[in-house]
TrEMBL record:
Domain Fumarate lyase N-terminal: 15-326
NCBIfam families documented for this protein: PRK09285.1 (NF006764)
Cited PROSITE patterns: FUMARATE_LYASES (PS00163)
Domain named Adenylosuccinate lyase PurB C-terminal: residues: 347-467
Protein name: Adenylosuccinate lyase
């Protein structure tokens, strides 16, 4: 089966779930990474030949002439026109070099040689082959390629999808803000809340993580084999290589410049990012489990999908599979991302290659998270509140009014009203572990020597109206 064409996917992200994760392929696949590598090499050449504003746009190195516009356009077309032919050609080079970045260098050399026919009226580009990968180590290329690819994937794909989920939860929390619901603490009936307020808790939590991601740094380094600019300085000691590095990383590559590294960029920013995404995953996991249990309890009802099968033997079932799928994929994502976050920050002395292998799993970690978000969205859009079930649940748990009654008794005790001794214990004796009726609660309230206004306020309470300020809390934003 390994010889079947087209190739059969080993990972479900590239097989069964390809439609949901496909947007990440443009950035986090091997092809996407190679396109970034080509872009970095090309932009470095253009900077060296055509200079920058503060040097008057003069060539950085002697012996160079500024590239003309058609030459620049041709070089940049290696990135904009990166296609299946480019991928195949790169694969051929890597099969010989056994080195991914060296293959990129040879790929650009070949394309520069091929440019002569297309740029016949301009000087040949072949004389600039020595400028490809000038003063660089492969990690200069790779660290920036990964940073740009991850940044694009997070900002253009993952965050917008998460924001869509947060928007859906926000809409639901507003719509259901006043629907009373029995709360459960330790799995037992507790002070009532509203469905909207409970969803708003997740909106608040997720918005905090989105704010962290807005402040996320994406660092890049450009300083040679061991971070000393040694080769560049040996080639020309008249160039301010440190300033050129800062300009290239921050202004040309759109990243945050890291001036002080070993051979590798230290990956601390990656650890921070993956930890934040993993933390977000954990919040989403909590949401998926809660929704699953709400459905099981009857708080939410699922909308059957026409033609869908819930069970192979039980036709009546509508299983909460979207939330279960999300739960599983969030666990997979966390396993990968938390491993990356803990291992990428270590490197033996100035360099070892463990990070190179582990970083190839970035797409899988983010892909499982994206798939989970997609399933959560689909799941949320396929449910609606079961207000009858919630109402019946509240009506069957009048004992939850023990809290406001004993609290009112505490306040009355401070005023030295009679019969208010040990209010908690009095209510506990009446209600703990018992099924209490509406009539029993009303009778107990009438027996208390409370201020008439307080007594009336308590008498008006029901499990469905005892929701405090839950309705107002929905409007709080992170």
């Amino acid at each position: 089966m390994s010889t079947i064409e087209p190739a059969i996917a080993l990972s479900p992200l590239d097989g069964r779930y390809r439609p949901q994760t496909a947007p990440l392929v443009d950035f986090l696949s091997e092809a996407g990474l190679n396109r970034e590598r080509v872009a970095i090499e090309v932009e470095w050449m253009i900077l060296l030949t055509n200079g920058y504003e503060s040097n008057g746009f003069r060539p950085v190195l002697p012996g160079l002439e500024p590239l003309r516009e058609p030459q620049i356009d041709y070089l940049r077309s290696l990135v904009s026109d990166f296609d299946n032919t480019s991928i195949a050609q790169l694969a051929e080079f890597e099969a010989h070099t056994h080195h991914d970045v060296k293959a990129v260098e040879y790929f650009i050399d070949r394309r520069m040689e091929e440019a002569d026919e297309q740029l016949s009226r301009d000087p040949s580009l072949t004389h600039l082959e020595a400028l490809v990968h000038f003063g660089c180590t492969s990690e200069d290329i790779n660290n920036i390629a990964y940073a740009r690819a991850v940044k694009a994937a997070i900002e253009r794909v993952w965050i917008p999808r998460l924001q869509e989920l947060v928007n859906e939860l926000t809409t639901m929390s507003q719509e259901f803000r006043s629907i009373p619901m029995l709360a459960m603490t330790h799995g037992q009936p507790a002070t009532p809340t509203t469905l909207g307020k409970e969803l708003a808790v997740y909106v608040y939590r997720l918005n905090r993580q989105l704010k962290h991601l807005e402040q996320q740094e994406y660092l890049g380094k450009w300083n040679g084999a061991t971070g000393t600019f040694g080769a560049s300085l040996a080639a020309n000691d008249q160039v301010n290589w440190i300033e050129l590095s800062r300009l290239f990383v921050s202004e040309r590559m759109g990243l945050d410049w890291n001036p002080l590294t070993t051979q590798i960029e230290s990956h601390d920013w990656q650890a921070e990012l993956y930890s934040t995404i993993a933390h977000t995953n954990r919040i989403l996991h909590n949401l998926a489990v809660d929704m699953w249990m709400y459905i099981s309890r009857g708080v939410f009802a699922q909308v059957p999908v026409t033609g869908a099968t819930g069970s192979s033997t039980m036709p009546h079932k509508v299983n909460p599979i979207r939330f279960e799928n999300a739960e599983a994929n969030l666990e997979m994502s966390c396993a990968i991302l938390e491993s990356l976050a803990s291992t990428l920050v270590e490197s033996r002395w100035q360099r070892d290659l463990t990070d190179s292998s582990t970083q190839r799993n970035i797409g899988s970690g983010i892909g499982h998270s994206l798939l989970a978000i997609d399933n959560l969205l689909t799941g949320l859009r396929g449910i609606h509140p079961n207000t009858l079930a919630m109402s019946q649940e509240l009506e069957g748990n009048w004992e939850v009014l023990g809290e406001p009654i004993q609290t009112a008794m505490r306040a009355a005790a401070l005023e030295n009203r009679p019969g208010m001794e040990h209010p908690y214990e009095q209510v506990k004796e009446l209600m703990r572990g018992k099924a209490i009726s509406k009539e029993q609660v009303e009778e107990f309230i009438r027996s208390l020597a409370l201020d008439p206004e307080v007594k009336e306020r308590l008498a008006q309470l029901t499990p469905a109206t005892y929701t405090g300020l839950a309705d107002k809390l929905v409007d709080f934003e992170a």
